[in-house]
Amino acid sequence: MQILKSINLKVLRGEFVAIMGPSGSGKSTLMNMIGCLDRPTCGQVLIMNKDINLISDAELAKLRGLEIGFVFQNFSLIPRLSALENVLLPTYANVKEGVNPRKKAEDLISLVGLADRRYNKPTELSGGQQQRVAIARALINDPSLILADEPTGNLDSKTGEEIMKIFKDLNGMGRTIVMITHDANLAGYADRVVHLKDGIIENS
Ligand SMILES: Nc1ncnc2c1ncn2[C@@H]1O[C@H](COP(=O)(O)OP(=O)(O)OP(=O)(O)O)[C@@H](O)[C@H]1O
Ligand SMILES: [Mg+2]
Questions:
Q1: Cα(24)–Cα(153) distance, integer angstroms
Q2: How far is the CA of 3 from the centre of ligand 1 (A)?
Q3: pTM: predicted TM-score of the whole model, two decimal places
Q4: How far apart are CA 132 and CA 72, in angstroms?
Q5: Which CATH architecture best describes the domain 16-203?
Q6: Which residue owns the Cα nearest ligand 1 atom 29?
Q7: Using CA positions, which residue lies closest to atom 14 of ligand 1?
Q8: Tens digits of per-residue pLDDT, 110-129?
Q9: Does residue 37 have its Cβ closer than 6 Å to ligand 1?
């Protein structure tokens, strides 16, 4: 079954783009393509001018590990690891040269306001705190691009706004952000909203 059709989407460095659309319209599928979790069966995905269909699995894994940070609706933290260990996790697979992972993780945990909770396990943290850990983890390798699939879907609206402010700050520091949301209010934090319906972009 063809999920995405005639998609033509260009995200510029430094942009904050929100993707909206009904359930089943293909938002997560599109994000998995952008995030190189799936390769397209036809068409091209270019990340920093590299066609992901033309590079090896190893190169793709490296590109994904170093240049893209993922944030998911359900936080996807490892329960038996502390907040700090969760943030460090991606560095076991990939790490940028000259970076001290432990120092970087400590800095990021502070950046998201959780320095005093860094040794706590995810179950000892609120939903908003868990999502902040997940954001710190997404940032550990200094990715150029942050992809967030309904990052506030499991949070109350006030906590959702707090998470949006973190994204807005990160965008202000020059990071590119692509975020899926069902909430038009939260989409208002983005520079641009892309509406997807039945696998087609209605506007952009
Ligand atoms: N692994 C899969 N295999 C087959 N079909 C799939 C798979 N994943 C998703 N689909 C189908 O692709 C379509 C788009 O799904 P997708 O998850 O991208 O939607 P979505 O816009 O993210 O929806 P939601 O808002 O509910 O998260 C749906 O019809 C879905 O059933
Ligand atoms: Mg989805």
A1: 16
A2: 8
A3: 0.93
A4: 11
A5: 3-Layer(aba) Sandwich (3.40)
A6: 24
A7: 26
A8: 999 999 999 999 999 999 99
A9: no
